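Hey team,

Filing this mostly as a record. A colleague (T.K.) asked me to run one chain through the structure pipeline before their review meeting, and I want the input and output archived in the tracker in case anyone asks later how it was produced. No errors, nothing strange. Just documentation.

Input sequence:
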Amino acid sequence: MGPQENASLPVRSMQVARALAAAGVAGQVRELEESTRTAAEAASALGCDVGAIANSLVFISDDEAVLVLTSGRHKVDTTALADRWGRGKLRRATPEQVRQATGQAIGGVAPVGHPRALPTVVDAALADYARVWAAAGTPRTVFPTTAGELVRLTGGLLLPVGS
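Output structure:
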């Protein structure tokens, strides 16, 4: 087994762990007893600031699924972000669209491990934290990372996403 392999992880989280290992990411996927479905739950379970939680939100823009990794400390201003990103209107994807685009369920969407890479924005607010936590494919799995590493992993853009 490689450094990321943990046979007890759920299948979706194993896919994420393999993607992280392939990208040379040192942070290990871990499964928690408590749910990390919301940023507040994740922050409580991990004992960190809610702003250090990187929520993976899927939107539809120009008939394409896109990923926005946002700090748990604020909501996405979809109009302002679409303008900054140079994209058409952003609307929240349905649970079915999220699963189709990522292979993962809402509440556990990871930044990686999808059937294909999605156009991605990483919230500039995540750069305020030395370590951030992102979901790893299920509502109970997470991994430690940084804003810079998320940009590298996703090929995304670092942009402000709040108003």
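Quick notes for T.K.: The helical segments are 11-22, 39-46, 78-85, 95-102, 147-154. Confidence is low (pLDDT under 50) at residues 1-5.
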